[in-house]
Amino acid sequence: MKFHRFQEFAQMTLAADGSAQLGVPLQVTDIELAQQNYSSHSYSLASSALSIVGGAGPEYQKFSIEHKANVRRACDLLIMEIIENIGWGSTATEFSDAETECLSQASAESSHITEWDERVHKTYMEHVQTLRGKMATKAEAFAKNYDLSTAVDPKNLLPLFERRAAAVARCEQMLRNTHWKTYYLHRFDPVTNTCTLFGNQILKDYHLAFWYKSSLSPFRRNENWRMWETTPIRLLSTSAAALACGLRRVAQSVGSTTRPSRIVRYSQEEYNPIEKQIFEGMEIVHGHRVDAIRLGFREILDEYHREGCSMLSNASFSSFYVPTLQQLQGLEESNAASGSQQYALASN
To answer: Is this prediction's pTM over 0.85?
Structure first.
């Protein structure tokens, strides 16, 4: 998926479908609007802090040991269902049906029936929001490799405010799919004047690190990935959306020695539409009429899948699977003896 005549490549890709857009169609055109965007989509760290780790939230703590095991398993299954089938922007009915189905599967696996109710629904929501928050946190670490500060102020001459404002504007430019050479998901080689769609090394590194290396990933407790022949497009588009949030966080903190009191939030309202547009763009490339475009992207998906499977195959799963009821019982007794009300259900 490399093109030596860059302008021809851009025109050819857009011409494949008149309504098609590859990536994030942001319309921010100047520093002032960029700053407004950051202000309106941020939140207080103190007010948003969740007391949940990998799904072990306040509603979750109210369940019996058997129900906890089922709900935790159902939460992982729900993430897989979102990736494989319904997507992040599914309707309330689709989401409710998926919740019920995942809980039924978990109950069947454990031979212990857990009925769906409002507490289970809240736990699902807590789990999804926690996963997204941790995705954004990890994405922020990788997004630093875009080196926004050096890009906008290589000699470190600008005052702090101007450098940060320039970094924010640069970030928004990188998130616009119309800037092919700087778009954050593509890899452009200025020496050979070639572009690899969705082949940015930072995207690859983050994608593999979160889904295939991190103990936060449901892959560590679910082997559905063994049935995949390649990387699901939704999986990569989810990584791409989280990376967009991470890049905005990095831009916001340029020139600061401490973490901002207000950070860009990886909210479903803001980033589900972004993920959807990236997903649709990737689907267009995946089925493109031009062999170089279509086959090149499929090679990337295959490569990521091979490397990810290798990471998972070499990992030790014993510390990542959902604990047995006996293990949970022992943990609960230990916590009760110490007066603790918190339950650690997975290594983090």
So the answer is: no
